[in-house]
User: Fold this.
Amino acid sequence: MGTQVLMLRGINLGPNRRVPMAQLRELLTGAGYDDVRTYVQSGNVVLASAAEPADLERESARLIAERFGFEIAVVARTRDELAKVVDANPLGDVADNPKRYQVSFLSAQLDANTLSALKAQTAEPERLVAIGRELYAWHPDGVARSKLWNALAGKALGVTATARNWTTVTTLLAMADE
Assistant:
């Protein structure tokens, strides 16, 4: 069995789509996954599974829909895939605040036209780098008025996406290594 990380999109933001982490751990453990651990309330799970990441995404989304009554997107990465994301760190030389450095984890790599349109939303001093199925975004002035952030969070990407700040990304890797 390998260690994998699940990132749930759009839960526990406000009063809707609530997924208590203790219940999520219980649900996934009951479904046969091992060493199920969560990090913060935004839907980050580290677990052991022999399933392929795509199968794990579908199965965990199905389980969550059955238990909590709403559908969500789930993005999975193996421990090694997450390590490559951290090792790449293409904006590490400029991103000096990990809370404003985001990685968007995508279900598939973006096509050239979508990526070009996304880059057009980047306003100085923001930065955006695409590597495979990840988008690294630096928002030094925050995300509140960022057109880039709005584009990253929207449905125009054409793929499932969920973002985590750099602190969360590195913490998830540390948890996967425990």
User: Anything to note?
Assistant: Residues 81-176 form a domain with the Alpha-Beta Plaits fold (CATH 3.30.70). Helices lie at 21-30, 53-68, 79-88, 112-119, 147-153, 166-176. Strands lie at 2-8, 34-39, 44-49, 74-78, 101-106, 127-131, 134-138, 161-165.
